[in-house]
Amino acid sequence: MENFKMTAKTFFGFEEILAKELQLLGAQKVEIGTRVVSFMGDKGFMYKANLALRTALKILKPIKTFKAFNDKSLYEGIRKIDWTDYLNEHQTFLVETTLHSEHFNHSQFVALKTKDAIVDQFRELRGKRPSIDKDFPDLQIHVHIDRDTVTVSLDTSGASLHHRGYRSATNIAPINEVLAAGMLILSGWEGKSHFLDPMCGSGTILAEAAMIACNIPANINRKEFAFEKWNDWDAELFDDILESLLKKTREFHYTIKGYDKAPSAVAKAKDNVKNANLDEYITITNENFFDSKKETEGPLHMVFNPPYGERLDIDMERFYREIGDTLKQNYPNTNAWFITANLEALKFVGLKPSRKIKLFNGKLEARLVKYEMYEGSKKGKYMNTEE
Q1: Identical fold, 4-155 and 177-215+251-382
Q2: 30, 53, 242, 363: least surrounded by Cβ within 10 Å?
Q3: Residues 373, 354: contact at Cβ < 8 Å?
């Protein structure tokens, strides 16, 4: 099978960890861009990347690049592609666009021009045309325009890869699965200690943590990928790839625990973890973190997404102070990481973070922060609290 170029889209701040994931999977010519990593691989690797990558949102397969300065040159460039290689007149398609260009600033217009060029080609060749389907298209086409360079790609994934397939119930402020996985990888989580998410919500961080710990492919529970509808779909190859990934799973010898003070969140998290077939690794209890104490021996790895003011009505200052107090008083020998979009609130924690990483939670600029809590004897030493 021949190798071809692909690009994996990701969130800001995850480019390097996605590149590392790709290299570990066996990708070639890995190159980092902004919110994107390009690489080379064959069809089997395309299947593998979609199944296994934790921090990719989408994997695109570029099929043509050309220059365009106006709608006429865009139309002609699209029309020059032989679309019968990818579609027939009875199938459906959908066009998505991303634009960074002075010549083109209206994404629906670009999508419409692309659609016209494809449809006109079929009308001329076959006398019939494929139609648009916004919900379940047979082919998803992605048009990226950067200044005057147009890149036309096939979307190999379909729905964003954060749709892992295990989350049925969502509560008030669920975290995106790719964001959760990226935070865990940035935090250094590899499954080599006990783990706690003390504000677990619908259980996303717990599920992603267990899949990392056991090296379970991220999208094992997903219902479908776009490439399954392609003309060159190879079900046998896909099954072989999946089987080889499943042979690489590993045992996990510690505990993964989640707390939430809302019984409704606990019930939903338990459902999601069960859907992901991870309930043997994860225990979730109805508990308020601020009333809790560390329950395990040895180092504890903690990653969480505290509720934030935009969505929830809480007293910010008091809430963040209680996070700091609980860590200080009740969680020795713990590496605690959390993400917050409330940059002001961090000063109320009363501890100095040893790491601060800029990320985005949705559209909100956020920080992933790390607090290192030492064993009892060092208690005096780590107290580099901010005056």
Answers
A1: no
A2: 363
A3: no
Angle between helices 107-126 and 71-79 (to 10 degrees): 40
For 46, the token pair is 């395309």
d(CA 195, CA 211): 13
Tell me the angle at which helices 15-25 and 177-186 cross, rounded to the nearest 10 degrees.
90
What residues form DSSP beta bridges with 41?
4
What is the pTM for the complete model shown?
0.92
Domains of the chain, residue spans? 4-155, 177-215+251-382
Q: Residue 301 in contact with residue 310, Cβ under 8 Å? A: no
**pLDDT score recorded for residue 385:** 45
CA 250/CA 253 separation, integer angstroms: 10
Q: Which CATH class is domain 177-215+251-382?
A: alpha beta
pLDDT tens per residue, range 176-199: 999 999 999 999 999 999 999 999
Helices vs. strands in the chain: H and E counts, helices first = 10, 15
CA–CA distance from 338 to each of 146, 206, 292, 298, 379 (Å)?
35, 13, 17, 20, 21
> For residue 279, what is the DSSP state?
T
Task: Convert the pLDDT of each residue in 56-91 to its tens digit.
Answer: 999 999 999 999 999 999 999 999 999 999 999 999
CATH for 4-155, among 3.20.20.10, 3.20.20.100, 2.40.50.360, 3.30.2130.30? 3.30.2130.30
Residue 44 CB burial class (10 angstroms; 0-12, 13-18, ≥19): middle
